[in-house]
Amino acid sequence: MKNLVILGGGYGGMRILHRLLPNHLPDDVQITLIDKNPYHCLKTEYYALAAGTISDQHIRVSFPEHPRLHSTFGEVTAIQLDEKNVLLKNGTTIPYDDLIIGLGCEDKYHNIPGAKEFTHSIQSIDQCRETYQTLNNLKAGAKVAIVGAGLSGVELASELRESRKDLHIKLFDRGKHILSSFPERLSNYVEKWFTEHGVDIVNNATITKVEQNIVYNHDEPIEFDAIVWTAGIQPNKIVRDLPVEKDKQGRVLLTNQHSIPNYEDAFVVGDCASLPHAPSAQLAEAQAEQIVQVLQKKWNNEPLPESFPPFKLKGVLGSLGKKQGFGLVNDRPLIGRVPRLLKSGVLWMYKYHNG
């Protein structure tokens, strides 16, 4: 029996499971899923969990069930590409015939002293739970810093404003405008929303150091009761430690079939893969679709696809609390209630109709 090992039940791993199960897995193949948690976590909604506007249960989705799907819940400590083994923290060694690496990302601290030690995170569900406890236990009128005004920082700041209207929230951004990768119309709309709702934006920020409850912007200290870091991501450390070629962001360079060069049985999906788009759940799922095609050809001893058409991503949707939002759909800017409703609809479809 061949063993397909999937590291991480994130968006890419889940899409692969749903495409192979229940009826498209060859009789001589079994799947071993390895994840820290016994459920898939909706990472796109972590900001709301941290802000306290949704419950923990709201962002859990059960893994599929199948007689030849075996789940192992634990932490990966190493991948041995030459030996075709995965090592777990509890000492277990799991051999594989084919491997899907979908271990996700971690915060990137840009070598800023104290950033890792003295800030909170929303990169994992465990970190979100800790951040939720911190933010919602703050005294009335407390000061909160959110470092990084990309999509995660903007959504967290807006959701926290609705959750705790008493808090003084300051959003630090290194650019002239927040959401600099979006059209100026969207950036202006979001900045106006923050102004109207009492969230302070610090543009052209340069965080030089972080201490306990202190952010240094251009070396000037500013005191806060809590600091949350949303200023960049990098691949999981297990992937960063792999002795393979990577791009400038530390993501693994891949063949046209999404495998690691010289290791045609090891595929990388999602945030750890070097792809021509910014990491996203949508991109991970699109890549997973192509990996499934490669696996099915491989298992049938058929020639592998030489290449795939470019990914067609539908766009990006962001929320400003529960009633307003923004987004780019088919390169068309959207603001107001429509993008917020669209995002809620996408989430509902994923939770209840995925697979």
Give a brief rundown of this model:
By secondary structure, the protein is of the alpha/beta class. The protein is built from nine helices and 23 strands.
Describe the overall structure.
- This protein is an alpha/beta fold and 355 residues long.
- The chain has 2 domains: 2-36 and 74-106 and 233-299, FAD/NAD(P)-binding domain; 109-231 and 315-353, FAD/NAD(P)-binding domain.
- The chain is 28% helix and 28% strand.
- Helix 1 (11-20) runs parallel beside helix 8 (281-299).
- The relative contact order is 0.15.
Helix count equals: 9
* CA gyration radius, whole angstroms: 21 Å
Our count of domains comes out at: 2
The spatial strand order of the largest sheet comes to 5-2-1-9-20-19
Would you state the CATH class of the largest domain?
Answer: Alpha Beta
Structural class of the helix and strand makeup?
alpha/beta
According to CATH, the fold-level topology of the largest domain is FAD/NAD(P)-binding domain
